[in-house]
Amino acid sequence: MAARVPEPQLAAWRALLGAHAAVITRVEQALAAAGLPPLAWYDVLWAVRESPQRRARLGELAARLTISRGGMTKLVDRLEQAGLLRREPALNDRRGAYAALTVAGETTLKRMWPTYSRILAEIVGPLRAAEANTLRRLLREIEARATAPPTQAPRPGATAKREAPRSRPPRRQAKA
Prior knowledge:
By secondary structure, the protein is mainly alpha-helical. A 3-stranded antiparallel sheet has the order 1-3-2. It is globular, with a radius of gyration of 25 Å. It starts with 6 loop residues before the first helix and ends in a 29-residue tail after the last helix. 12% of the residues are buried. The C terminus is likely disordered.
């Protein structure tokens, strides 16, 4: 039997998904109208910029940005072709690679931010500080629950109290 999610919590979940999709759509539209790269490019460039020495392992980027490893490889390929990132070999792992931010990548981030921040200012700017802090706290709680190890739910029909194990197996009846 599936767990029941109370309607207020389910409505909150739907609102979160709807808000996220609407904000991403607005940002993507604004970036495209300004002739700028897509938001996914910004996200990768920013994650690399914030990494130590402005370079990050591709697998770590994929996990941090919730993109499949294959998807991250393709995205980094496009960013590298555009001259915004360069791949650097990982010295201690022949198969591994780092994505390193280029000067052009830094410049692209700076060109994208005014458009991105304008949309964010329109959408979340009107929140009072207390509202923004409450929203952040609640979203961090959801994130913490989502990233915590899953709890093991009891199997359907399982009882909470188990029978004590028998000290010896039951005797078999002799066949006649």
